[in-house]
Amino acid sequence: MSQDLPVTGYALLGLLTFGDELTGYELKQRADITLRFYWVSPAMSQIYTELRRLTEHGLVEPRTRPDGGREVTTYAITEAGRAALRSWMDTTPAGFPVLKHTVLLRLLMGHAAEPGRIAATLEEYVAELAQAREVLAAVREMLRGADEPGEPFHFPAVVADWGLDYFAAETQHAHRALGRLVPRCPTPPEDAAGGVPRLLR
Fold first, then answer.
1. How far is CA 108 from the centre of its chain?
2. Could you tell me which residue ranges the Transcription regulator PadR N-terminal domain spans (predicted)?
3. Under a CB-based contact definition with an 8 Å cutoff, are residues 41 and 35 in contact?
């Protein structure tokens, strides 16, 4: 079954394992306060596409109920869905995350930027990290009280703490890089024999 679903499908199954039924909109809200910090928070259209796929596979069960004069559809994970999620988690290699870090990409070619641009970019990044850390800290606080081993939000709390540590480490690295910046060189530094450094050949 794991070959039939994209990772986003398994992510949505996982978000339905906390004991409640959710609408597509509620799944989007849950993804926005969890997945977006370390994966990708899917768009509403993608969520409904995956819910249709999961329903066709019998991995979730849609249930329609009246709500204030209209009907809403909620989704619950089925036993087959739990089995598929468990199989995916048991058989999928850990894998090494692909880091797409636009700040590091620009830092790599900082010699081609205008004077002060890379420092400004790093300072902007530090500010963005502070904002992200504040948001994640609020999410972490929401989990408090049910985050001990055996409690419903133990594993989400572990992930949130990991994220907070990551943001703190990124902030430290950015400050360290800021401290190492030198006046911009018009071209990459040359080695003693002339030309670009051997590392870049």
1. 24
2. 12-86
3. yes
